Amino acid sequence: MHTYSLKTLATVLNVEFRGDENITINAIASMANAKQGQITFLADKKYQAQLKDCQASIVVLTKESLPFWNGAALIVSNPYLTYAKLAQLLDTTPLPAEEIAPSAVISSHATLGKNVAIGANAVIESGVILGDNVIVGAGCFIGKDTKIGNNTKLWANVSIYHNIEIGENCLIQSGAVIGSDGFGYANDRGQWVKIPQLGRVIIGNNVEIGASTTIDRGALDDTIIRDGVIIDNQCQIAHNDQIGEHTAVAGGVIMAGSLKIGKYCLIGGASVINGHMEICDKVTVTGMGMVMRPISEPGVYSSGIPLQSNKVWRKTASLVLHIDEMNKRLKSLEKKLLQLSV
């Protein structure tokens, strides 16, 4: 457990502080549950009134909120970002592996960098290159000729197929599958003929991939996930997709093949995106969006019907089913009005 003083935190984070510089904390907690010896943060002014009952030793807040708190404080412009940095300092998550386990199966033709850790029952095949400080969790499989860059971490039971490239400082959560076959078949008079998927998956630096997410290898060209992309749990990224730098993909998203997504996009949870098209930079698709056409202008895009009471939804559904009929009636009325005005 790490302990930090108020002054040390202010120095490390390069922010202003107020209060006794020797006050210490060793954990971070929510404002409602924080106790002495812990630090918390106020990221939304609507919770400002809760400061009067807060028991934390230190609160992270803005200069505007400072008058509402009498105790020790870190004074910042973005409390939520500071919270993220504090959580990294105070992180108690154990490593997926801390040494090379005796039960790990490592090919004599694999190349391991310095300080590599490999968990129990992991399999490292021939031609694999692991960079310095790579951590491979228990039960992982890394296929032939795959390359993994420095400081990348795989949690337990990650499957990396053959001839995959993963950059530096990546984090891949348990159950993720990288490089599985894309959904490629030809039809021969009702019978499906499998098309071997001959491309790769190329993953850049500082990429995070969530638990049970699947990224398919390309059919001929590569599937590419560029630097800084974050992908949540249980997503499907199909063959030949390309995702631009620093795009964020929330849980349960399904992407069809040969899709190109630009930089700095935000894809909301449970969205479905058609393939063989392009989405430009700085596009936000809100949750459960159904993207059927290319998007060429930055902005926020939505589809779907927000939750309603069942009674209201039934009426809405009934109206939708009669839209064509209503449209024809409206056009008929417009035509009659036009005739009357002549």
TrEMBL record:
Pfam family, one: Hexapep
GO CC terms of this entry: membrane
GO MF annotation terms: N-acyltransferase activity; UDP-3-O-[(3R)-3-hydroxyacyl]-glucosamine N-acyltransferase activity
EC number in record: 2.3.1.191
Pathway: Bacterial outer membrane biogenesis; LPS lipid A biosynthesis
Domain of life from the UniProt record: Bacteria
Oligomer status and interactors: Homotrimer.
Keyword match Phosphoprotein: no
Record's function text: Catalyzes the N-acylation of UDP-3-O-acylglucosamine using 3-hydroxyacyl-ACP as the acyl donor. Is involved in the biosynthesis of lipid A, a phosphorylated glycolipid that anchors the lipopolysaccharide to the outer membrane of the cell.
Enzyme class, first EC level, given as a word: transferase
Catalysis performed (reactions): a UDP-3-O-[(3R)-3-hydroxyacyl]-alpha-D-glucosamine + a (3R)-hydroxyacyl-[ACP] = a UDP-2-N,3-O-bis[(3R)-3-hydroxyacyl]-alpha-D-glucosamine + holo-[ACP] + H(+)
Keywords: Acyltransferase, Lipid A biosynthesis, Lipid biosynthesis, Lipid metabolism, Repeat, Transferase
Family recorded in the similarity comment: Belongs to the transferase hexapeptide repeat family. LpxD subfamily.
UDP-3-O-[3-hydroxymyristoyl] glucosamine N-acyltransferase non-repeat region domain segment(s): 22-89
Record-level GO BP terms: lipid A biosynthetic process
Keyword Transcription regulation: no
Protein name according to UniProt: UDP-3-O-acylglucosamine N-acyltransferase
Active site: 239
Gene3D superfamilies named among the record's database cross-references: 1.20.5.170, Hexapeptide repeat proteins (2.160.10.10), MurE/MurF, N-terminal domain (3.40.1390.10)
